[in-house]
Fold Purine nucleoside phosphorylase.
Amino acid sequence: MIKYIEETAEYLQDKGFDAPEIGIILGTGLGQLIDEIEVLKQVSYNHIPNFPTATVEFHKGKLIYGNLAGKKVVVMQGRFHLYEGYTLQDITFPVRIMEKLGIKTLLVSNAAGAINLDYKKGELMLIDDHINLQGSSPLAFKGVEQLGERFTDMSAPYDKNINERFETIAKANNIKLHKGVYASVVGPQLETRAEYRMLKLIGADAVGMSTVPEIIVANHLKLKVAAVSVLTDECDPDNLEPINIEDIIASAAKAEPNMITLFKELIELL
């Protein structure tokens, strides 16, 4: 993997991806942030050596480098998921590349279902902690200790200072920002009524199919990390209706301007 990381990072550096400070991963239906960036360079995933390729139709599949709120950023427009058939090492490879390019902070967004029924679709949730229900770890491979501490501490995986700044920004802009626990499952099927009840019992406020692997690797690399979920549906097991993916995408688009405000104003402060 070290060889692949060096090869990929060198390719991107040659393309002009020069010392970004902040990495951003954009989740399902959350691509509008790109419109706020002064794009200097962009490369499709399928042109980057050793990179996976996004297979989900509403994920764009580009790595973008540019200026946002006065900082150099590298942005994943489209991410990878376990349900696409990738390994956890594939999914988190871009995080290792962004760190190799120079980032010190990683900001992550995702679309999630609200388990906590006090949270409503179209609102945002700041992730304070998570539950890994994906069945393995992106650090579970031979030679991981060459890239960082094998037994990575996860007592505080989300940076407290960044989270406090997010909350301050949300309050100043009158943005409803919950704080809670995100559970990450494999998917791609949605949960049953019994599974939603289980998730609530074990302490989850929201559920999705991403994010946790990238957070684990970011902590492995000692990056400062924070994540925001856009709540796209309400997972009430007693009143569960068939899922509508178009409705989920529409809810994400409705909430996205608030997420963009949070990210832009935070980056100005970093």
